[in-house]
Write a structure and sequence with these properties.
Layout (H helix, E strand, L loop, with lengths): L11 H9 L4 H7 L7 H7 L5 H13 L3 E3 L5 E3 L1 H4 L2 H11 L13 H11 L9 E7 L2 E8 L2 E6 L7 E5 L1 H9 L4 H6 L4 E4 L1 H12 L11
Parallel strand pairs: 3-6
Antiparallel strand pairs: 1-2, 3-4, 4-5, 6-7
Helix pairs in contact: 7-8
Length: about 220
């Protein structure tokens, strides 16, 4: 059953934790930052939570006005829930320095895409780049333009290049772009289109403003 525990503290921090401080609550919010998701999709993204506990958290968050039912028969953030976005992103930045959890550790597509959005600093003078990214069977559109990386769920209208892989492999490529060729060779990733375009995406994180492939600087 949903919990009704409270810190019984009038401080705004305590009152916020009364709403989103239960285990898994903020991770549900994280998963809904980029797109609405169905219960089954949330379960896949959060393999460490039981179905019953996830259902409890969803009921609590809905009751407290953080999420609501989406037209797609899933869940989405309300305006109040969306206000948690900078807090969740700041927690992610802070947590980068924390120790890694013991293996096996989960990593969702949303997690790595949020990292990409925050860490990528593409050359603002470079032409726009649209990538089709398929992570664990779900398709995302990633655009590099105006010095930013933009991410949205779904197929792009047109793409310069496509990359198919899993979230952990994509995260590894973002930190070590030089392994792209070997990662494709061993079957953990597949590129359709010019590999230089994918390298541009990966280097936007590890080496912002790399030399342009056309020789411009």
């Amino acid at each position: 059953m949903p919990t009704s525990r409270s810190y019984r503290d009038a401080c705004g921090v305590a009152r916020a934790l009364d709403v989103v401080g239960e285990r898994w609550a903020l991770l549900v919010v994280r998963e809904l930052l980029l797109t609405p998701q169905r219960f089954s999709e949330l379960r896949q993204a959060l393999p460490g939570v039981s179905s019953n506990l996830l259902a409890d958290r969803l009921r609590e968050l809905e009751h407290n006005g953080v999420i609501r039912r989406a037209p797609s028969d899933g869940y989405e953030l309300t305006e109040r829930g969306r206000a948690l976005e900078p807090i969740v992103r700041a927690l992610g930045d802070w947590g980068i320095e924390a120790p890694q959890p013991p293996a096996p550790a989960a990593l969702s597509a949303t997690s790595v895409l949020i990292f990409l959005q925050g860490a990528a600093h593409p050359d603002p003078s470079a032409p726009p780049l649209t990538c089709r990214l398929e992570l664990d069977g779900r398709v995302w559109t990633v655009r590099l333009a105006h010095g930013r990386a933009e991410v949205e769920a779904g197929e792009p209208g047109s793409a310069d290049v496509s990359l198919k892989t899993d979230p952990k492999t994509f995260a590894a490529l973002l930190t070590a772009p030089g392994t792209l060729e070997s990662t494709c060779a061993d079957g953990h990733a597949a590129v359709v289109g010019a590999p230089t375009a994918i390298r541009r995406l990966l280097h936007a994180v590890t080496d912002p403003h790399p030399p342009r492939s056309d020789g411009a600087h």
